[in-house]
Amino acid sequence: MSAIIDFFKNLGVTTFSMGVSDVIEILIIAFVLYKLIIWMKETRTWAILKGVLALALFIILAEIFELNTILYIVEHSLDVIVLALIVVFQPELRSTLERIGKGRMISTIFAGKRNPSDEGFTEVVEDELIKASYSLGQARTGALIVIEREDNLDDYIKTGIKVDATISSPLLINIFEHNTPLHDGAVIIRGNRAVSATCYLPLSASNSISKSFGTRHRAALGLAEVSDAVIIVVSEETGHVSVAEQGELKDNLKVDELRQILDTLLENSEDTGSRLAFWRRHKDERKDS
Asked: Can you state the angle between helices 78-88 and 90-100, rounded to 10 degrees?
């Protein structure tokens, strides 16, 4: 603790020459601290951090007033305090590491194997999803539909019951019908097929989500925070259709707004299909030569 006090005392009188590398380093640190503060404010970490800062202030005051018994206890329990902080912040730390892993390069390296012959997201799938979503909304039937993109969702698919069926509006409506075996949980869509139902999703710990939203919306936002999936949510109470993506929840969407979001998936699927076709042609040409 005395070393920390000496550091702050000498901070004002220390002079140094600043180079380009120093400026870059300061910018990187500032960016990381900014992202860290934003992350803390969006989760329950902010409240916990205020408690940690209050404890740190108490230790500093104990040093100033030379409360040796308290300082002795703190010094000999520092390892336990650090371990306790890691345990307390474990969910937030895990979420942060998952966000870092969302980078396209990392996702490409660690993504599970896909079958190149699988048909991607199509206009037919888009139309069936829109039809089913608003039919369920009119009937006040809750639904949670996950559309997989680049990030592999096998960990969540395994929590459900295998379906492996072509997407259709009647299929989705029947799955989420009340008192049916598959209505609870999420349906996960890969390409043009519903691969699994009754899947469990991670709940968001964000404080920004409205208290009017229930577990279904919090689960959709939770998955959107740790993956690039697009999640359609139908509210059982209001019948509103919402979409969670990129860590954000868009509520009460109209048909055109939902279609605009799904059109982006359709464009990405067509690009992926074009790349697969190119590599197939390239492979065939090499065989012929």
From this structure: 60
What CATH fold (topology level) applies to the domain 123-280? Answer: YojJ-like (1 (3.40.1700)
pTM value > 0.90: no
What's the rounded Cα separation, in Å, for the pair 151 and 111? 7
Q: Which two tokens stand for residue 204?
A: 């968001």
Q: Where are the domains of the chain?
A: 2-100, 123-280
CB-CB contact of 144 with 201 (8 Å): yes
Residue 259 C-beta-side C-alpha neighbours within 13 Å: 10
Tokens of 141: 């039937």
pLDDT digit string, tens, across residues 163-185: 999 999 999 999 999 888 888 89
pLDDT in tens, 240-278: 999 999 888 999 999 999 999 998 887 776 555 444 444
